[in-house]
Amino acid sequence: MSIKVTDNSKLVLKGLEELKKKAVNTQSLMLQIAEDMKTKTDMRFRHSKDPNGVMWEPLKESTVSRRRKGSSKPLVDTGELRGSISSKATKDAAIVGTNKEYAAFQNFGAKKGEFGSKLVDENVREHQRRRRGRTETIRQHRRTRRVESPWGNVPGRTFIGFSKNQVKHYAALINKHLKGDK
Fold first, then answer.
1. Any bridge partners for residue 136, and if so which?
2. pLDDT digits (tens, 9 = 90+) for 82-133
3. Which of 28, 75, 86, 98 is the most buried if burial means most Cβ atoms within 10 Å?
4. pLDDT for 144-180, tens place per residue?
């Protein structure tokens, strides 16, 4: 699954239409834009900020306590999502995306149970439980329970998208390319 973010900036779209009309070779331009978009996306992971420079919502303490080494940095516990970001350029498009299925709800957010639920079969270790004023030992056993996906509300932490400065920059690159100042 890949995320498709389309920016409807009239300035950029107008420039792209001009490039098509003039049949200019745009492969190198699209490669330049795709690489810049990938770099900007990587910087968002590094600084925990969305395209407009707004800090991502911090992790809840319950999430931090379950993470490797107690990391409190959003979206970078294992580095898989960040490492999966790739860029691609064709003569008509500059593309940045990921193949991680969970990327969309990390980028846009999701409500608890929004994607339904499933039954999970799991092992339960032997443990102690207080019941009616006394302690009982519960033997190891298996249980099946229903788990919602996601199991809690996930705030959107936008890592793929365009800032206003990016749109202006790409429009300027397109205009420069149209004028032949490659």
1. 129
2. 999 999 999 888 999 999 988 888 899 989 888 888 999 999 999 999 999 9
3. 98
4. 999 988 878 888 899 999 899 999 999 999 888 888 7
The number of beta carbons lying within 10 Å of the beta carbon of residue 97 is 20
Instruction: Return the pLDDT at 34.
Output: 94
Of 47, 48, 43, nearest to 96 (Cα)? 43
Task: Report d(CA 122, CA 48) in Å as an integer.
Answer: 34
Whole-structure pTM value = 0.69
Residue at 140 is within a domain: no
User: Is residue 144 helix, strand or coil?
Assistant: strand
Mean residue pLDDT across the chain:
86
- By three-state DSSP, how is residue 6 classified? coil
Q: What are the CA-CA distances from residue 149 to residues 31, 131, 143, 144, 155 (Å)? A: 37, 31, 19, 16, 14
- Could you list the residue range(s) of the whole structural domain that residue 14 is in? 10-113+153-178
CA distances from 141 to 108, 125, 129, 131, 138 (A): 38, 7, 14, 18, 8
CA–CA distance, 82 with 95 (Å, rounded to integer): 16
d(CA 89, CA 35): 9
- Determine, yes or no, domain membership for 145: no
The answer to whether residue 33 is domain-embedded is yes
